[in-house]
Amino acid sequence: MKKVLILCTGNSCRSIIAEALINAKMGDRLFAQSSGVKASGNVNSYAKKLLDEKGIWREQYHSKTLDTLINEPFDLVVTVCDHAHETCPVFPHPTPKMHVGFEDPDGKGYEAFEATYHEIEAILLPKIEEFFNPIAQQVVQTSTGVKINFTGAVAKNKIFTMVENCKTGQCACMSDTTKAKIANMNVTGEDGNVELTLSGEISKAEIEEALAKSKVLS
Which of 19, 99, 162, 202 is the most exposed place for a label (fewest CB within 10 A)? Predict the structure, then answer.
């Protein structure tokens, strides 16, 4: 099981919420812990209340300093505030780092903590998913065109967006000449395993070149 450390300044709000969310939503593959560069020593009461109401609070969640965990081997360190990002120390073990900052809800009303919870769930969790399970794509020439199979941290709606951008001219991934060769595009499958079928006089090489330029997939 991969281990993730969530690091912020006080380890009382954002990092605690992120720790709980990762363990609740991704706990079959990942184990998250959190700490602070200047830990407050207390979990914010609104953060605890929120996690309690979501049914994902655990008694072992507590505010702690980084020195209690820095010697543990982690597969990824995520900083969720700018101060932690700027002062993140060198770990004894080579450790990849990622920064995804969130506004501190401390000192604000309960609604701010709910907003932070949803932002972390919507923004941070997919980034961690993609880090450990990046999008892979297999392009195959068929008798009627080209078939692309996307696997990993790929959302079906992202492929729909890519297709719509191509149809409406918002995508500069391929030339108008190449686009004119495509008779139809069809998206099937589900998140994590999406298939895009293109029919027409299009070649595998042309599609691979377009995918390499796609900003939707980057």
Answer: 99
